[in-house]
Amino acid sequence: MTTQPRVETSPKVSDEIRQTTCYMCACRCGINVHMKDGKVAYIEGNRDHPVNKGVLCAKGSAGIMQHNAPSRLRAPLKRVGPRGSGEFEEISWDEALDIAAGWLEPIRKDNPEKLAFFTGRDQSQSFTSFWAQNFGTCNYAAHGGFCSVNMATAGIYTMGGAFWEFGQPDWDHTKLFMLFGVAEDHDSNPIKMGIGKIKARGARVIGVNPIRSGYNAVADDWVGITPGTDGLFILSLIHCLMKAGKIDLEYLSRFTNAPVLVNRDPESPDYGLFLRDDTGAPLVINRTTGKLAPFDMKGVRPDLGGSFQMGDVTHVSVFQLMAEEYLKDAHAPEAVADRCGIPAPRIRAIAAELARVAFEEAFELDQQWTDFRGDVHKSMVGRPVSMHAMRGVSAHANGFQTCRALHVLQIILGTVEVPGGFRFKPPYPKPPEAHPAPHCRVTPNKPLDGPHLGFVHGPEHLALKTDGSPARIDKAFTWENPMSSHGLMHMVISNAHAGDPYKIDTLFMYMANMSWNSSMNTRGVIEMLTDKDEDGEYVIPRIIYSDAYSSEMVAYADLILPDTTYLERHDCISLLDRPICEADGAADAIRWPVVEPDRDVRGFQSVLVQLANKMKLPGFTHEDGSAKWKDYADYIVNHERKPGIGPLAGFRGEDGDKVGRGAVNPDQLNKYIDNGGFFLTHVPEEGAYYKPWNRAYQDWAVDLGLFDSPQPYLFQLYCEPMRKFQLAAEGHGDRQPPEHLRQRIKDTMTPLPIWYETDQQGNEGFTVNALTQRPMAMYHSWGSQNAWLRQIHGRNPLYVPTKLMRDNGLSDGDWARVTSPHGEITVPVMEMAALNDNTVWTWNAIGKRKGAWALDEDAPEATKGFLLNHLIHELLPPKGDGLRWANSDPITGQAAWFDLKVKIEKAAPPDDLEQSQPALDPLKSPVPTAPDALTWKVGK
């Protein structure tokens, strides 16, 4: 008789569960961290969490390997060799803080703008901006300028919010879901759950993306659009809908500025601006009286076709201007099909499907609500079409206008903030007027005069010095990029190196891998970071960097402040910052040290508090110089942005029984820990939809502290601030753009969304589109050091469409030379049929530099892995006009990553068949290479 082995079918997983928030991407899901003997044994999703409801992806599950990564930095480091040598010595925290303060204090006393403080993918921007503001520098921003500022800014200016962190589809009611340029890393668990929910109901999914992977692979209809032409396609859909009369006229008249009157006299200094009353309220024609009325007057019924003569000046409605523009034959499907790569009949079919679902499958919810004019509505009308978009449409030099066009498409269908459509997540929606304008006045030894970032409403808000030169090192909020709400992180190093607009003294960065995958000009930036002047001094004199891992950027800093992993520190996912809310409620969350570090590292936010205390920064210290907070946890609990409002909305008040507004609760963090690491309060049912105009929602938002008073507003199909910049370019007003920018401003900053070709289209000989996309199993560059995730994506081929494979005689595994006006790579290729015929692409951030991330020099990421970044530049190729233009959207400054044009040809295999080109010299790492086998035992 054979004896079967005894198998433990119910092993003890853990002896304790600690609940916190994931940090393996920006979803910020709730996780249960299982502990054995005080160590992390297993990570699963928290079923009670409002974001993921227990679902956890490969990244989240692999967090245990991120926490134990061999590449973790061990202690503060001081550079002792040349920059780039990787030669450091470990120092104490006392010495590290002394060095940092010794560099920073003289700057603050003499000229605070000499500090450029820019942070990467952290989620504590309300705190880091508070630190920079109290230091006094105008040079602060986070990574949004090279990520998705076009999407965020276009959404705020058009409708008070955008996709991803601002809103979500109404998964419970939508019947048609359309994605534009969405890769798998974005909001991945909620989108996967949502797609599963709607497909179970038989709802249809349309994916618009040059690449068919991930969400687009499960779409019912894939539209393999030509990169950079999304706006052309969207405006053609608008053309078809308007021509067919398939638009929601009632919605447009009540809730948008479509009926607002616009000055149409070209000789008037107010040409293109709204007609307003004495209080500044935009005016409409009241259908019931035929007379002028403010848009928000009780009982007003705005006339979409209104016009009004005042003296010699004719004023017409925004809707009339839209009809004049979008009914032009230039927007017809037949006129755009070839450029978009989408046949005209298919464009018409998609428009017809949008119209059919929006209007023929409309429904009503039996829920009464009252709007901001006082009108009572007996029900809520549902239009079950929803949309989502991200970097694919955003990261182009025409991306801002494309994103605005997409929002206009949603709005004319009446599908925003209605059942079945797109819904905002609290604290959004917020119109641009509810946000601050940018501030830039620097005073020695004083705080900055206000928040760094914000929303401009005209030339008066530009960040310019008295002589008209840029106030900020990245040239944000200037005539070059007037509406750059997130700053231009990708321009900081090149501008600082060039001394344009001025030299800086210290570059201080957090988790921004600017010498590798976060750079638009990898080799060039490395040279800038190591370049010396004629006196033998570094052109950028000092670089302070904080990271948790031995990334490529570490070697190019002078002082390293090692961060913890996300399981070892406090973090605050705040309503003041990047919220985790879902549309039905306001939520925030924390991270907390579920384990203590086994290295001499500190959470970066706590290090900033300690630096502020050392320098006695206002805002961080009392009048007597004593510290307000000892670390970031202390700040989270005890800081009040204004009375009763702090970083966390939950468990406020001395007894922890207040929501949103309330006194400081010393036990607040423990309350969050006891509640699973998060707080959630639901929107009242009457306020669930129509949030910008719904009195019940507005009153709830005021009670919660999201607003100080109700903030109803109209969706801005016509963006008046953009017209103000055009007026300046036409010669009106006190602030005038430089001559070389006048025409560009007139051409691109149109108040109705347009489409224009990007500057890289005309590069002779470079005709193939080249893109990168993040895989679902990776988010940041740190993912490809993860022992589990590396098994999914250990290398990245260049994916080439069948047509280009045949044209160039390529087969899977062959090597190709890919060139751009800036650089060249030689990489292995793989055929992909589900790909736009003139587009090549690869996974982003898989390629690693040898010596970084504790990877072996023969690791696949460091050999066959590669970056497209070697082909990109932060500046456009010379145009022959004596100027160098930024490779950015001319309105917001968003990095135009996806405008890259290349040529591809078959190449002989490299001498070393395992080595993609270019191959940079290995870095010397401050941490040893990982062992061949990464094993350990947790518990007994």
From TrEMBL:
<keyword id="KW-0408">Iron</keyword>
<dbReference type="InterPro" id="IPR006963">
    <property type="entry name" value="Mopterin_OxRdtase_4Fe-4S_dom"/>
</dbReference>
<dbReference type="InterPro" id="IPR009010">
    <property type="entry name" value="Asp_de-COase-like_dom_sf"/>
</dbReference>
<keyword id="KW-0479">Metal-binding</keyword>
<feature type="domain" description="4Fe-4S Mo/W bis-MGD-type">
    <location>
        <begin position="15"/>
        <end position="71"/>
    </location>
</feature>
<dbReference type="InterPro" id="IPR006656">
    <property type="entry name" value="Mopterin_OxRdtase"/>
</dbReference>
<feature type="region of interest" description="Disordered">
    <location>
        <begin position="908"/>
        <end position="940"/>
    </location>
</feature>
<dbReference type="GO" id="GO:0043546">
    <property type="term" value="F:molybdopterin cofactor binding"/>
</dbReference>
<dbReference type="InterPro" id="IPR006657">
    <property type="entry name" value="MoPterin_dinucl-bd_dom"/>
</dbReference>
<dbReference type="GO" id="GO:0046872">
    <property type="term" value="F:metal ion binding"/>
</dbReference>
<keyword id="KW-0560">Oxidoreductase</keyword>
<dbReference type="Pfam" id="PF04879">
    <property type="entry name" value="Molybdop_Fe4S4"/>
</dbReference>
<dbReference type="Pfam" id="PF01568">
    <property type="entry name" value="Molydop_binding"/>
</dbReference>
<dbReference type="GO" id="GO:0016491">
    <property type="term" value="F:oxidoreductase activity"/>
</dbReference>
<dbReference type="GO" id="GO:0051539">
    <property type="term" value="F:4 iron, 4 sulfur cluster binding"/>
</dbReference>
<comment type="similarity">
    <text>Belongs to the prokaryotic molybdopterin-containing oxidoreductase family.</text>
</comment>
<dbReference type="Pfam" id="PF00384">
    <property type="entry name" value="Molybdopterin"/>
</dbReference>
<keyword id="KW-0004">4Fe-4S</keyword>
<protein>
    <submittedName>
        <fullName>Tetrathionate reductase subunit A</fullName>
        <ecNumber>1.8.-.-</ecNumber>
    </submittedName>
</protein>
<dbReference type="GO" id="GO:0030313">
    <property type="term" value="C:cell envelope"/>
</dbReference>
<keyword id="KW-0411">Iron-sulfur</keyword>
